């Protein structure tokens, strides 16, 4: 039997009762904590003992500064005299163990304990997690994107599961803040009345449910990415998740070792920031490379899948083209994308004739209207325009002679730009061209689309 085991431990940092209970159960089974890591804790095999563990919060302890080592050592020495031995810790959270039958509690002043806990959690958990939530949602991957970009998110399982992971993580963090706030309020009242801090067991079950959901959605996201984009990119997605986990673990261990080695606070922080920037930059490059590789892999010389081509509209179109075609779908809607791009033109000033279209099949109703609203607001990517500046934006066209129920043409500086949106029962179609539009183009597009639907 191995003398050392590593166990996945991921409690909320303010659930001190849950951590203490876990460590005491492990000790009774003969496994004693040796090191508390970022995600995996190390236990060493020994004699089964009814040990008592105590999680103590030290708000003045820094993860970077070696100069606070003396006060910490002094506190550890005080605890050892009272029968408590320091075992491990992370940042402002320190874990002590006692094998005495009824040890005197380290935190005898409940008011001071509550104050220390509040300061420690605020600085080391609340602020960083709020920042993560803001970045996740500001980066275009938050749950609100389902409302803002339903056509992009709900037409593929990759997008849906990505939103599920981000949304679950966001909800977990926000709810944990609410529960922690309620716990603080309840504990404050209890301590003020001469009692002790409230139990933290309320955190445990809910957090475990969220944790399982995040892991499940992440695994399904990798499978969906592999299914929709290819096995290679599914492996890339799984690798990114693994690298992020290793990165979180590695940064914490690195700062701890630098601090233990006596590296100054400023140097430790600078090195940590530099490492974070380099690693995040490398991961960004990997994602960018994967994206462009994926996009390049879509192109071929076979345009048979196109329901319309440049030659349907322009007789002077070039003869060398490359094509891309992609289809995705979920139980809510499906999206078919196709693009024709002119190549092999020797004249750098020549005007290239390109054409692309998207066919979104979505049930009529509120979701249909939201998808249409998204495409109208996007305006070929110019989201910074509100549709009223310089005569730019979509304008509704007369659809009396069309198969479509409604039609919109995009105008740039008051002139038609060669982009149209057509609305059919259960389908929305967007067509973009680079050639100068003429009056008959919309009718030709409508005929081609109506025949294909």
Count up the domains. 3
Q: Quickly give the structural class.
A: alpha+beta
Overall pLDDT confidence: 82
Report the principal-axis shape: elongated
Trace the largest sheet across and list its strands.
7-8-9-10-14-13-12-11
- Uncertain segments of ≥5 residues (pLDDT<50)? none
Q: What percent strand?
A: 15-25%
How many angstroms does the end-to-end distance come to?
65 Å
Largest sheet: 8 strands, antiparallel
Radius of gyration, rounded? Answer: 30 Å
Q: What's the number of helices? A: 11
Number of beta strands: 14
> Which H/E pattern describes the elements?
EHEEEHEEHHHHHHHEEEEHEEEEH
Helix content: 40-55%
Account of the protein in words:
- With 453 residues, the chain is an alpha+beta fold.
- It has three domains: 4-98, no CATH class; 117-296, no CATH class; 300-452, no CATH class.
- Helices cover 48% and strands 20% of the residues.
- The chain contains eleven helices and 14 strands.
- The strands form three sheets. Strands 7-8-9-10-14-13-12-11 form an eight-stranded antiparallel sheet, sandwiched between helices. A three-stranded antiparallel sheet has the order 1-3-2.
- Strand 11 and strand 12 (406-412) form a beta hairpin.
- The longest helix has 36 residues, at 157-192.
- The chain is elongated, with a radius of gyration of 30 Å.
- The N and C termini lie far apart (65 Å).
- The model has no long low-confidence stretch (mean pLDDT 82).
